[in-house]
Amino acid sequence: MVEYTEVQVAGNPMRIAYSVPAGDGPHPAVVVMYHRGGYDDFTLKVCDDLAEAGYVAASMDLYHWPPLLEPASENPFPKDPEIIQDVAATVDWLSARGDVDMGNLGILGHCMGGRMALLGASTHEAFKACVPYYPGNMFKPWSEDGPAPFELLSGIKGTVRGFFGNDDQNPSPDDREKISAELTRLGVEHEFHGYDGAGHAFQNFVAPERFRPEATTDSWSKTISYLDSTLKG
Predict the structure, then answer these.
(1) Do the Cβ atoms of 132 and 114 come closer than 8 Å?
(2) Which class does domain 3-232 fall in?
């Protein structure tokens, strides 16, 4: 069951939604980068599903930098330098808990969260595993002067498993191949999986027109298997 806490980031309060598995730990942990909808039913279920699989799941509320709008989806996209600070603050919070195995951290996200998962893995060396789902806008900086996440992929210290809809256009199949080729060039071990008949946000049951149950079941099974082999092995 998701709970909430609050930390300070550069003088701004930031909520963290988290879910904890049964037992005393220490547990491996996964930082969850949410999608445009913020703390909706989808994001909270991702946290609970990860906890059920044995992971402390922690999702930061990126919409905490002024100005703040409601609903969350009305806020401008977070800026990359702020995202990087938020990821670091969440890792620090996990470290201070006392029930987290800090040698076994992953980062996962959907849609804009997939982009931010790759950004977080590229800029914070703590992550052994990275799971981006349909990470669009990889080639555009979300700040005044860049760089784009694509330009920072050399910072990834762990491995990557990515999931894509073959009908998606952001990222398109060509975008996926470009990211894969760059990871190969950099020597980052990765696997990408694509699903026919699926577009952007195919796991998002909150948007029934996008939701694809078979692709969701297969991709989540592969995700947990990857996290288990990487963070529990």
Answers:
(1) yes
(2) alpha beta
